[in-house]
Amino acid sequence: MCKEERGNATRKVQLRSTDRRSDLRGVLFPHGVLLLSLPFLLNAGRFARAMTTPHPFTAGGLTLRLVKRLAFLSCSFWIAYLAIVVLSTHPCGLSPRCLSSLHLAHRPILPESPPTETRHLVFGIASSASSWPRRRDYVRAWWRPGETRGFVWLDRPLNSSFPQTDASLPTVRVSEDTSRFPYTYRKGLRSAIRVARIVAETVRLGLPDVRWFVFGDDDTVFFVDNLVRVLRKYDHEMWFYVGESSENVDQNRVNSFDMGFGGGGFAISHRLAAALARVFDSCLVRYAHLYGSDARVFACLAELGVGLTHERGFHQVDFRGDAFGMLAAHPLAPLVTLHHLDILAPVFPKLSRLHALEHLFEAVKADSGRILQQTICYENSKAWTVSISWGYSVQIYNSIQLVPDLLPLLRTFMPWRRGQKNASSVPYMFNTRELPRNPCNRPAIFFFESVLAGETGIESNYSRSSGVGCYSNKFSPWDLKYVRVLSTELDLDTKQLQAPRRQCCDIISLTNEVMNIKIRKCEDEEVVFLES
């Protein structure tokens, strides 16, 4: 610290001390006068009578009584003076909050609870005896035996020919009978009541050390580490209902823009879940007219006065076809869930749905916090634009694309309703952009191929897709065969998740076949644009 800074610091301390002494005099002076006057006021009557009433003894007796009075006043003065000295030297100074809390000092300080971990979560997965055999592998892709806790809830026992237990999957349970509950939605499914009651049935099992109850479908894929990261942002002792609405505006309009859709998954803090379980059955009777299970959970939580806490990493995925547009431009939030994998095309071309999901989890296991996180940079000499969706794809444009123009999702998917063929006319909860018809205006796409994690960092490799390209005599992105991306593990703390910032990247080298890129933390006030 320089001399000027030390001088300023000293003057600040002196000013604080002066202010404290001034406040001390201002507050204690009137109290001190009152304290000094109190003994005299209490004995004023007796003192006056002693001076005016004839005394049977000599004047010396009166003098003796006066001396006693004066001695008492003197002692009172010195007691008050000592009190002023003690208060003026106490570290609390004049802080009423500090002084009023002194009586609590003897109480033991309770340690803060440790951060939320996977073991603090309990999953309730909605399935059926008919769908579980064909969808259980989706759950197996993300389930962690011995670490994750939870149950798969079926409508009836499995066929005896099907394995009843599997150590690599959650325990299977059969839901209670729900025939006593009314259901009046025309052309709906009564199973919505059973699926809704999974919330209450899971809570009533009474598992120990639970902070969050998490619910989803058998085709909901959870990215557990990211789920834990997101839930750490919230106090599990408070009432929280965490999830996200649908991507489809029409679906939200019919249900609610503030409803956590069940396919995308939602989490309920344990205290709220306990309160919900106590009133859930009586609440269900009032909502026989609703269609789905998640609408019933939302309605009963609304009666408890709790609204949805939106988290953009939960994905209901209410569209069909190729999800590339969403996966290549994920919002600035950890990927928590994906849904409707049976309806979507495989996330990687030329692979089955299950193998494509398992391939994605190879990247997830290396760096779950960075999966699908978008990073944008430029190749200056070629005037190329590079957009990385880590662990999934790299897009290279043979032109300059501004950062805001790359954030909307390419419309590679189709509307949820089969009759709506014009995807551009369907309103979504995010911005979209047209997929150019001219191949030369489209990016060259490189899909995730492999990953290698070591002590010095993580290397992920991407190979060019064999789709339609744009070739010319001039060297272009379609002439490249591979892209190699170097990075370090992205493990954001709670404060960083509350104020997220997209990371930056640099083109390290470029050959006729390979581009090498390094992802890094952006510098303070660094902006991403093409330097001229």
What does this entry look like structurally?
With 532 residues, this protein is an alpha/beta fold. The protein has three domains: 12-96; 118-316, Alpha-Beta Complex (Spore Coat Polysaccharide Biosynthesis Protein SpsA, Chain A); 363-520, no CATH class. It is 33% helix and 19% strand. It has 13 helices and 21 strands. The strands form five sheets. It has an eight-stranded mixed β-sheet with strand order 11-12-13-17-18-19-21-20, with helices on one face. The protein has a seven-stranded mixed β-sheet with strand order 3-2-1-4-7-6-8. Strands 5-10 form a two-stranded antiparallel ribbon. α4 links the parallel β1 and β2 (149-154). α4 packs parallel to α11 and α5 packs antiparallel against α8 (270-285).
